[in-house]
Amino acid sequence: MPANNKDYVATYCIRGVRKLTPEVWAQYDAACNPDIITALSDTPFTSAPHSNKRTHKSLERSTAWLANLLHSVAARRREVGSDGEPLTGSLSNVLVHMAGGAVVQARKAFAEGLMEDLEEFKAVNPSPYRRLDDGVAGYVFDLVPLRAALSARSKAADEDLGDDADTLKPRGAINTLTPTSRADTSAVDPAALSEVLRASLQPLPTHKPRLVNSARSPHEMLRLVRDVGIDLFDAHWAQRAADIGVALDFAFPVALGGSAAGGRQSCGMPQDEAATTPTTLDWLTPSRLLAVRSPSPHQTAASAQPLISGCGELEGRSEPADNGGCSPYGDGYGCIAWLYLRALRMLSELAS
């Protein structure tokens, strides 16, 4: 993919790579009149880590392109139809990608820029908004480039640590700190991911929706709901599962506690362990999910309880399987945990 420029972003289309300018993007918006549109963002897709200069350019371009789209939307709303009414509604439909990569300070700077006063800017670009954020309906996070940036930063830190260790280790010692040659984005620390997302959201209002693209699993979704206050997720993970023939058929709510007559049965898990309430998401096993209950979607402190203490025969099945309802074979009704584990393994293989 070619690099972006100050005047355009490089995009894939049916005819290959095309240069898309903010002006053309605004024309598409005017022609299609969509319910939701996301402003163009200068997200670097070159190999991470990126220089401070490149990160600064990304922030400037993303801010300018958002202002361009908001100006276009506001101009259309000032138009008056034959009945004397505005042609479009007054509610904003513009989402913004939160820029800044894996740099916490850069992400904070971009978010704070959305909240700055635009009085001095109105002379050359009239706008009904006092701040850019006033015209923004919600915030979007793309996890694919963010994972790559976090992985590259972690790898660079490990290499620096490895170089220091080489100078201090005794003769003949083995340096175990040398990272692999290929960045493993699956090894990104969940805490680091949550930290950079919170850095973007901290200066912003809490009542606007927060959308995440390309979450890797239900576990990651639950972490982001609990730790960051994410409201919406795209269907990336479910689509990938469907691509390889795996359907997710979870039943909610599920009774907690041990199995009863005609109820769910434990699959390879001690009953005393199945009855234990977890305190962190790291406790998860393939046969369990978590219920994240919080009085507010943006409250970081949330209680976690297991939704599934085991798995067993599905409702309507005449006879249990020979191994206590946990067989993935037979009449086609398999153990939910087995299907879930199989989906995770297959998706991991595809991602590697």
TrEMBL record:
tRNA-guanine(15) transglycosylase-like domain location: 16-116
Gene Ontology annotations of biological process type: tRNA modification
InterPro entries: Queuine_tRNA-ribosyltrfase, TGT-like_sf, tRNA_ribo_trans-like
Protein name: tRNA-guanine(15) transglycosylase-like domain-containing protein
Origin species: Rhodofomes roseus
